[in-house]
Amino acid sequence: MKESKKLKIKSLLAASVLLTGLSTSAMAQIGEQRQNLSVGFNAGANINSVSFTPRIKQNSMTGITGGLTARYISEKYFAMICGVQVELNFSQRGWDELFETLDENNQTVKDPSRSYTRNMTYVDIPFLAHLAFGKDRGVQFFVNAGPQISFLIGESEDINVDMNNLTNTQKEIYDHKIPNKFDYGIAAGGGLELRTRKAGNFLVEGRYYFALSDFVSTTKKDYFSRAAHGTITVKLTYLFDLKK
């Protein structure tokens, strides 16, 4: 089972790297040269959850993200504008466990008397193929996709439960430091860009990050066989051109 999972993860990572490589190759083909270098900053919000096996029920957890963006547009190949983009972001992730109880009607409801939240702060570095369609000045539709690496730089827990009455799953994760600080996966998304002549470029984007790595040990002898992030990000980016 775990052998199959690792093979699938390696295949997804290879596909992501191939996508970025194909974009770079496409830029090397004959096309209308652009030579456009832009830099700027981005900021937005994360909606994060963690895929655990065995499962841990969770509420949606929000956090902030933001950092620096650099993008290089090489050429316009037919109707497609080709480029590459790299970012350096600080990103809040983690999970918020869902506790349930029975009400007076014997219905399952959220239990407000118990809570557990794990806050995890990462430095994210996505390497993205940037493909866009539209006018040089005006509105463009774009797609970004490629591999991402991350480094855990901070973590904290907010625990409001009886530590003497934990489940086996909770005992494995509560009050334990995250052992794997390095995270990697695939990021992909799309959005709209407004390109102006003098004021710069304004982008709004929705993106999903799928982690291929686990932040706890998941060997055959370990309790968890999967512990990986899944993050939806909505962000705004401002870029100004250094070279046109």
From TrEMBL:
Residues 1-28 form the signal peptide. This is Outer membrane protein beta-barrel domain-containing protein. Pfam families: OMP_b-brl_2 (PF13568). InterPro entries: Beta-barrel_OMP_2. Residues 28-215 form the Outer membrane protein beta-barrel domain. It comes from the Bacteria. Keywords: Signal.
